[in-house]
Amino acid sequence: MKEPVYKLMDEKGRVLIPKELRQKAEMEGGDIIKLSANGGKLTAVKVDIVEVGSQNPEAVEAYVNAAVRTMSHEKQVALAARILKFAQQGEGRTD
C-alpha cells in the first residue's frame, strides 16, 4: 500500500485499520497496541508486553491476554476455571 489511506473516525473514536496495513505491521486480533499522541500525530505500535507498573484496566487485560497466549491449553483451562470461581465469589459483593 503505497498511497496514504484515509479513514473516518466514528463518534466513539474508532478507526478501522485496513487488513493490508495490519498484515504489514504484523498486527492481529488480540495483540496489544500501544497508542500515543504527540503534536497532532497518533502512533499505534504493536508491543509484546505492557510497561511494568501500569495498573489501569486496559493494561491489565492486555497483559493477561498476552500471557494466556503463551500458555498450554491445560494451563489456559485451569486459569479460566480459577477466574470463573473468583468471579462467582465476587457476585455478592457490594464494593
Written description of the protein model:
The protein has 95 residues and is of the alpha+beta class. Helices cover 39% and strands 15% of the residues. The chain contains three helices and two strands, in the order αββαα. It has a two-stranded antiparallel ribbon. The longest helix has 18 residues, at 73-90.
Give the helix/strand layout.
Elements: H1 19-24, E1 32-38, E2 41-47, H2 57-69, H3 73-90
What order do the helices and strands follow?
HEEHH
Rg, rounded, reads 18 Å
Mean pLDDT: 84
Shape: elongated
Biggest sheet character: 2 strands, antiparallel
The beta-strand count equals: 2
Give the percentage of residues in beta strands.
Answer: 5-15%
Brief account:
By secondary structure, this protein is of the alpha+beta class. Helix content is 39%, strand content 15%. The chain has a domain of 64 residues.
